[in-house]
Amino acid sequence: MKTSLLSIVLLGAAALPLTAAENISYSQLLREITSVEQAPAPEPSVEKISIPGADAGRYWVTVKAADSRARTRLLEAGLDIVEIAKDSVSGYAGPYTMGQLSNKSFVVTSQVPLADYLGKMNKDFPSQDAAYHNFKETTDLLKEMAARNSDIASLFSIGKTVEGRDIWCLRINSAAKGETPSAKPGALYIGNHHAREHLSNEVPLLFAAYLLDHKNDADIKKYIATLDIYIIPMLNPDGAEYDIKNGSYQYYRKNMSVNSDKSRGVDLNRNYDSWWCQAGASNYPGADTYCGPRAFSEPESQAVKRFVEARRNLKTHISYHTYGSEILYPWGGTDAEISNTRDKQVFIKAGDEMGKLTGYRSYKSSEMYVATGDSCDWAYAAGGIFAFTFELEGRGFYPGAAIITNAVTKNIKAAVYLLSITDNPYKVI
Question: Which residues, in sequence order, are CB contacts of 95 under 8 Å at separation 6+?
């Protein structure tokens, strides 16, 4: 983890002192990341790994699952599906879920105590992942971007988290600042719904830096002049901070709400009012896929709801997650197809084009599994927004710093493509 962005960017052998004028440049940020990628990483220490509840019946399990229906049932049982193979899935399971797996005739082919499994992962934060930005660093960088580009950029909070942190939104608009309404077509980019998905913060954060660094390029200049662009890199800062507390990963997914049974957290991407808590979500508070006590029960999802409902000009949206190299579009909460044929064609065509730019596969979300309460389903249903979930690349939630440059550069191409169709998404067909 880095200290202040205003004084030094990286610690250790890769430390790069920067002047105040340099440290908001997109090109400079990539150079900083590259320097970390190339620097020799210190030997990780297994002793530093912290696994909450690892001594309370948490396991890494592999369970037979031949199709999306079987995967959906496992989500409902509380399994946090991480990897999908041809006829099985693997993921995290706590005591409740282990009981569900035994009681509902699932076939568990492998189970390893989580402490043993994670001990083999040899991950340690921050030593080899110093290029990633924590909440303070993200906030400082956003504030500096806005201050140094005050003619076109502004920063405001869309709400507070459970623990009182601001959910920062950088707005890029040549005519309107802060929360002032705009009639320009709007594009929205959100990262870090899930705490441990730190790459999903880096992509939108560096996309913001890219737009401001290239604001005089012909195409970017046109988008800034004609569109209303919003970037929220870290929707779940409480969870993201908890996941790296004490300098080590916690493998944590949810927000930091205290549930009725004193367990922690709601899965924010199961908390939206879109077939809420039906297929592919758990109503057990201790489960990683817990949908919450009601739709929009959480301050973070409430903030998104207020934000979207107040901006009927929003036309396009990407919600960044990890991992899988996939682009998903509605519906995720049902096997049914989108009834509007033209809208369906836009999703398919735009998804395929962004897939070409990233190398990701684009397809309907429920083909993987049905998961209700999803943010992109809700954004499309409630606002008619062409909303895509990007599952960024990598094998694991902590893929290291070496993946950032490639993921960022590819996904910026896709993000810019989305800007190119935001004025009229139907032009793709």
Answer: 56, 57, 58, 286
Using the Cα atoms of residue 412, residue 252, residue 10 and residue 38 in order, give the sign of their dihedral. negative
Cα(360)–Cα(350) distance, rounded to whole angstroms?
A: 13
Give the DSSP letter string of 150-203: TTTEEEEEEEE-TTS-EEEEEEE-SS--TT----S-EEEEE--SSTT-THHHHH
CB distance 280 to 76 below 8 Å: yes
Half-sphere exposure of 22 (CA within 13 A, CB side): 12
Domains, the chain, in order of start with CATH, read 12-40+125-247+290-428 (3.40.630.10), 51-121 (3.30.70)
* Distance from C-alpha of 303 to C-alpha of 54, rounded to nearest angstrom: 32
Residues that are catalytic: 391
Q: Do 263 and 293 meet the contact criterion of CB atoms below 8 Å apart?
A: no
The pLDDT tens digits of the residues spanning 339-383 come to 999 999 999 999 999 999 999 999 999 999 999 999 999 999 999
Strands 80-84, 88-93: pairing is: antiparallel
- Distance CA(426)–CA(255), nearest Å, equals 36
The structure's pTM equals 0.85
Give the β-pairing of 361-364 and 326-329. parallel
Q: What is the token pair recorded at 293?
A: 């006590």
